[in-house]
Design goal:
260 residues; disordered N terminus
Length: 260
């Protein structure tokens, strides 16, 4: 158990460091934030303490993964905010282009209605253009690492800039894109309404398993004694919790993608 506790402690500290650094599959290393650093250190200390006292490795792993999960949720929220602003941005660009403004000025107006990651990338592209790069090169440079929906918008902007399309053709292009996006939004709303019952069922089914386990443990002293042993605390309960969490996450992902 001492070896297991030491392994959990080391893993907890390592995961906490990665979480503070903001390492995710789709996000590069950002600057450290004091709040994230404090949270990671507290969670790592809790994981080390729990692992060293009880010798339960999953406790340390879960505690150390909290900051990583927190950063993932923050990035997902920023991405949803950016994707929600795509239609207003394209409406501004199409309207400005229809009024006769060049693409650079239309993009500046669209920047005012952009949010989150989309606003940052448009601002970066405009800054690069002011420093002497062509608009097509500036937009192409900020596409790296963008989410699929945001990258599609930037790709259309890069195409318009590289082809030197006139204002009328730019407006026509983005009006067609807007029609497709509005239809997609209506379809997604209908799917979300149809899958709302399934999302509720996920939580109800997830609650059945732990409640049933508590009932059986209360009614069967043998099962309660087995769960209180090192095997139960270190293997059975953590394994059951991990499978439960994995099932909820995977099911909700399937349902959310069906309604996305």
């Amino acid at each position: 158990m001492i070896a297991v506790g030491a392994l959990a402690a080391g893993t907890a500290v390592a995961l906490a460091g990665l979480a503070v650094a903001g390492v995710t599959p789709r996000m590069p290393l950002p600057a450290l934030h004091r709040r994230d650093l404090a949270l990671a250190l507290v969670c790592a200390a809790g994981g080390v303490l729990a692992a060293s006292i009880h010798g339960v490795a999953p406790v340390g792993l879960v505690a150390a993964a909290i900051p990583w999960w927190r950063r993932g949720r923050k990035r997902a929220a920023r991405l949803r905010l950016a994707e929600a602003s795509i239609i207003p941005v394209l409406e501004a660009i199409a309207g400005a282009s229809r009024a006769g403004l060049v693409l650079r000025d239309a993009l500046s107006l669209g920047r005012e209605r952009a949010r989150g990651e989309l606003a940052e990338r448009i601002a970066d592209a405009l800054a690069r253009e002011e420093l002497g790069a062509s608009l097509a090169e500036a937009v192409g440079a900020v596409r790296a690492g963008a989410a699929s929906r945001i990258d599609a918008v930037l790709a259309d902007l890069q195409l318009c800039a590289s082809a030197r399309l006139g204002s009328d053709r730019v407006a026509a292009l983005f009006e067609d894109v807007l029609s497709a996006l509005r239809f997609e939004r209506e379809l997604a709303g209908d799917l979300r309404a149809r899958t709302s019952g399934q999302r509720l069922q996920v939580w109800l089914l997830a609650a059945v398993v732990p409640l049933l386990a508590l009932y059986l443990a209360a009614m069967s002293p043998t099962l309660a004694d087995e769960l209180s042993t090192p095997l139960g605390r270190g293997v059975l309960i953590p394994a059951g919790a991990l499978f439960e969490i994995a099932g909820v996450v995977l099911t909700r992902r399937v349902v959310s993608r069906a309604g996305a």
